[in-house]
Amino acid sequence: MDYLLQLAASPTAWVALATLVVMEIVLGIDNLIFISILTNKLPEQHRQKARRIGIGMALILRLGLLSTIAFIVQLTAPVVEILGHAFSWKDMILIAGGLFLLWKATTEIHHSMDPAPEDPMSKTSTVTLGFAAAIGQILMLDMVFSIDSIITAVGMTEHLPIMIIAVVVSVLVMLFAADPLAKFINDNPTVVMLALGFLIMIGMTLIAEGFGAHVPKGYVYAAMAFSASIEVLNMMSRRARAKRLAAEA
Description:
Elements: H1 2-8, H2 11-39, H3 44-66, H4 69-74, E1 78-82, E2 85-88, H5 89-113, H6 123-156, H7 160-187, H8 189-210, H9 217-248
Helix pairs in contact: 2-3, 2-6, 2-7, 2-8, 3-6, 3-7, 5-6, 5-8, 7-8, 8-9
């Protein structure tokens, strides 16, 4: 208790908490975009449930990993060397997650460009399989993003309560933002393609970091913010044009 009181009275601890909360929220954007795109592929009545399960598991994974900080730190130690380059478990997990994101985003882009016809006779089995597959894929990426998130937290502060609060706050933000973001993506088809492009960029970034090439997160998120702002301007332009044509009709 004395430790917690001393921590609460420390201005440095509050600064560290605010910084880590912002960092964890930013890192959660990648996870949230993937969950939103994936759950929008499900029937409408299953989407919110899948999003809540995915985000809930993200919280459980993050808190579980925080309870094994000593193990998490060991994930950064080299375990295998290939062609003169040493890889840690973290590196291999990031590479695997990046490859999965590339595959998933490319598949979704292909499906958007050339959607397969739906067979109404097999609708029930498709719903069940689709929901299970979606949860499985969300959990897989939750693990990748959770490890990246917790390693970042460990690198920014040594105080476990600060890490726990930051993780819980970031996941709560994800929970509240999930439905509006998913609805926005679903209502704007051009945003889907932009978000899939973000996933490809994130996948390439994970692979690059897995091979030891550090990519400053600021550059990645600045590019995403710039692209999103251009798309917002395009949406405003299309709506203004549609209103003008409707007024002239």
